[in-house]
């Protein structure tokens, strides 16, 4: 596994642990690649807390221009943003 793959795997695991803490209902068999986060209970208030936790967990500032509904639509869309926050270009 390359360093990039290891970093992506680490980001995925850490982010999923953070996200789960802000969701109300996560079935054991949830498909993280497709399920909309709002369907799991993420709302605008919990999204604010989630952003704060992401910033603290990853030590990076969440880009203001990406604080939009589309970023929080799915785990994959959120993961893509967080990955760009923590990995050098």
Automatic annotation (TrEMBL):
Which GO-annotated molecular functions does the record name?
phosphopantetheine binding
Where does the record place the Carrier domain? 9-86
Query: Could you tell me which SUPFAM superfamilies the record lists for this protein?
Result: ACP-like
The source's superkingdom equals Bacteria
Q: Which InterPro entries match?
A: ACP-like_sf, PKS_PP-bd, PP-bd_ACP
Name-wise, this protein is: Carrier domain-containing protein
Identify the keywords attached in UniProt to this record, alphabetized. Answer: Phosphopantetheine, Phosphoprotein
Organism, as annotated: Micromonospora sonchi
